[in-house]
Amino acid sequence: MSKKRVIYEGKAKILYEGPEPGTLIQYFKDDATAFNAQKRAVLDGKGVLNNRISEFMMTRLSAVGIPTHFIRRLNMREQLVKKVDIIPLEVVVRNVAAGTLSKRLGIEEGQVLPRPMVEFYLKDDALGDPLVTEEHIAAFGWAAAQEYDDLIAMSLRVNDFMSGLFAAVGIRLVDFKLEFGRHYEGDSDVPRILLADEISPDSCRLWDFETGDKLDKDRFRRDLGGVTEAYAEVARRLGILKESGETDNVVSFNGGK
């Protein structure tokens, strides 16, 4: 890893220069952060699990027509992805009231929303990733009008697919965060919008349908413990982990090293 040129390092991932033009290597760290990185920890195996879960989700979304930056998994912690210019917005889709929505509007956590809700947040750690409106996005040029419409349409399609996928294995998709980027192919001056970053229990709220147990990063945020065990349970239900009963062994994957 020391021989690769670092392009960007975030809270949970590092992006390295890729082996081919227009590619990057996305490395998943074991670092866990919450509350704008005010709370930190290192959770052994989290990066391995997130790498495999995100690979699984990106592959299946691509198969149903959602264009993504994912190319292939390289090893237990790295993926080869297409280089994109990240749109400086986090798109959050909510199906059930939880987290900041409950706090901001005084809605009881767990209340099913009348329809999926799409929110936009500006990607700016110094400002705490503030909630922004369509008017803000247009006025400051963070996304063009057509891009804004595309982000909503793609996010709702992702929600439809993932809600069904998780429901089939007894998991309620409460809410999740997506990031998108502009990808320029060949000599084209018109970029294509690709789903980027990751989809994992770090970026999704996932509750067991029967018990309501949290299977996501809220276990870290709320000091519930068993974070990697919960992530491994998600992987097991999705069929990523071997059905050997050894779900605590986070490197026991189908097709893994």
Task: Describe how the helices and strands are arranged.
Blueprint: E1 6-9, E2 13-17, E3 23-28, E4 31-34, E5 39-42, H1 46-63, E6 70-73, E7 78-82, E8 85-86, E9 89-96, H2 99-105, E10 112-122, E11 131-132, H3 134-139, H4 145-167, E12 171-183, E13 192-196, E14 204-208, H5 218-221, H6 227-237
Antiparallel strand pairs: 1-2, 2-3, 3-7, 4-5, 6-7, 8-12, 9-10, 9-12, 10-11, 12-13, 12-14
Helix pairs in contact: 1-6
Task: Kindly describe this structure.
- It is a single chain.
- The chain has 257 residues and is an alpha+beta fold.
- Helix content is 27%, strand content 30%.
- It has 6 helices and 14 strands.
- It has helices spanning 46-63, 99-105, 134-139, 145-167, 218-221, 227-237, and strands at residues 6-9, 13-17, 23-28, 31-34, 39-42, 70-73, 78-82, 85-86, 89-96, 112-122, 131-132, 171-183, 192-196, 204-208.
- Strands 8, 9, 10, 11, 12, 13 and 14 form a 7-stranded antiparallel sheet that branches. Strands 1-2-3-7-6 form a 5-stranded antiparallel sheet.
- Helix 1 (46-63) packs parallel to helix 6.
- The longest helix has 23 residues, at 145-167.
